[in-house]
Design a protein that fits this description.
Elements: H1 3-6, H2 16-21, H3 24-28, E1 37-38, H4 49-62, H5 72-92, E2 100-103, H6 106-121, E3 127-131, H7 140-149, E4 152-156, H8 166-172, E5 177-183, H9 195-203, E6 209-212, H10 224-227, E7 231-235, E8 246-250, H11 252-257, E9 268-271, E10 276-278, H12 292-308, H13 310-329, E11 334-337, E12 346-351, H14 356-365, E13 368-369, E14 371-373, H15 378-383, E15 389-393, H16 400-417
Parallel strand pairs: 1-13, 3-4, 3-5, 5-6, 6-7
Antiparallel strand pairs: 2-8, 7-8, 9-10, 11-12, 12-15, 14-15
Helix pairs in contact: 4-12, 5-12, 6-7, 13-16
The structure holds ligand C6P.
Length: 418
């Protein structure tokens, strides 16, 4: 189910205070002596106690290397790691466990597809279609590939609201297109792309699709079978798991055809100096000792989100975003960057002529954490003719009072520079 359909039904309400109690950092950190108002969730989410506890339990009782030992600890660690894979499979509703490749995050997932699929199947004169909304991690790998292979990057423009222009997309996908690689939710603007429709449009030309789900998974229920995408990449730390964790979903038939991205231990069946035979998927793509604890933590984080329910989370965040949009729009001199029809979590803004870095510094004095800068999406900044924005991004534990604190602080900034 997508964000669009999720909001059409009446979802259960969130007990936000109870949820906040699960996140120790929210009560333990006081920037400038003020309670922390954490609105930088698009950069990284905070970790709930069950995930912290799981990491401690793993390190205290279960750690050993995986897939390599017959001793009890190794078997325990292996079972926990593979159980985490099943949790990712369930979370994304993938058909099979072997369609889940653990990665260090979304960036590695995209790079894996670039090396594994791109270098095998994309050649001179072929085209890769992305959108103007992409994060650098879904631009730069494709530029590298284009340079190496003589392929061409085609970029679907966005309109003044920050919505992808679908007619242009339709025009750009054609017989030369070998891959569509698009973000599900824009990190700089919050635009929710109509990915299901875009995937179907690509498939009409027989083109496989990679979805960058980094900003979607904490906010939108994702069902890869329903979307029917070939690849879906995300990072664990944005969905309340550890940094260094993440996953790439890939349809088994594609993962099987792809070449491994990294060579090393665990991704082989046999090695001689003459020839190496690769392991089956997903091990083929998981060379070396992985961050075992991080993946186990990721599995726990996905279960945590699953227990609360993404429909309820999406509805709460939608209300927060609507409230914040209305309140911020009423502040003199505030310009919102990105007003797409469907948005998730992100409010990017400019206050008068004040540089966003100054805005961020002043908000921090009130205990409010936002991100300022180009958000690793420089083409989006260029499109809106701004060098940077201040960006508030919401998560399940944010409250309306925190939005009020943000607006009051922005008002102070505006008055200071008026
Ligand atoms: N965006 C932000 O503040 P990694 O760094 O691999 O976990 O995620 C990369 C990435 C890929 N796609 C999108 C849409 C993203 O937003 C991000 C990470 C953070 O917006 C850090 S730049």
């Amino acid at each position: 189910m997508t964000a669009q359909t999720a909001l059409a039904v009446t979802p259960p309400t969130l007990d936000v205070e109870r949820i906040r109690a699960d996140f120790p950092i929210l009560r333990n950190v006081h920037p400038h002596g003020k309670p922390l108002v954490y609105l930088d969730n698009a950069a990284s989410g905070q970790m709930p106690q069950p995930v912290i506890d799981r990491l401690v339990r793993y390190q205290t009782h279960e750690h050993a290397n995986i897939h390599r030992g017959v001793h009890t600890l190794s078997e325990t660690a292996t079972a926990a790691y593979e159980d985490a894979r099943r949790r990712v499979q369930k979370f994304l509703n993938a058909r099979q466990e072997r369609e889940i490749v653990f990665t260090s995050g979304c960036t590695e997932g995209v790079n894996l597809v670039m090396h594994g699929y791109g270098r095998r199947f994309i050649g001179e004169g072929d085209e890769i279609v992305i959108t103007w909304l992409e994060h650098h991690s879904n631009i730069v790998p494709w530029q590298m590939l284009c340079e190496e292979r003589g392929a061409k990057l085609k970029v679907v423009p966005i309109d003044d609201r920050g919505d992808v222009i679908l007619e242009e997309y339709e025009r750009l996908v054609g017989p030369r297109t070998k891959l569509v690689a698009i973000t599900h939710v824009s990190n700089a603007l919050g635009t929710v792309n109509p990915v299901k429709q875009m995937i179907a449009m690509a498939h009409a030309h027989g083109v496989p699709v990679l979805i960058d789900g980094a900003q979607a998974v904490p906010h939108v229920a994702v069902d890869v079978q329903d979307l029917d995408c070939e690849f879906y990449a995300f990072s664990g730390h944005k969905i309340f798991g550890p940094t260094g964790s993440g996953a790439l979903y890939g349809k088994a038939e594609w993962l099987e055809k792809m070449q491994p991205f990294k060579g090393g231990g665990d991704m082989i069946l046999s090695v001689t100096f003459e020839k190496t035979t690769y392991n089956a998927i997903p091990a083929k793509f998981e060379a070396g000792t992985p961050p075992i604890a991080a993946m186990i933590g990721l599995g726990e984080a996905l279960d945590y989100v699953g227990r609360i329910g993404l429909d309820a989370i999406a509805a709460h965040e939608h209300e927060l975003l609507a409230y914040a949009t209305e309140k911020m729009s009423a502040v003199d001199g505030v310009r919102l960057i990105g007003t797409a029809r469907q948005k998730a979590s992100v409010l990017s803004f400019y206050v008068g002529e004040v540089h966003p870095h100054d805005v961020g510094t002043l908000l921090n004095e009130d205990g409010i954490a936002v991100r300022t800068g180009h958000h690793c999406a420089q083409p989006v900044m260029q499109r809106f003719k701004v060098p940077a924005t201040a960006r508030a991004s919401f998560a399940l534990y944010n409250t309306f009072e925190e939005v009020d604190a943000l607006v009051a602080s922005v008002r102070k900034v505006q008055q200071l520079f008026a």
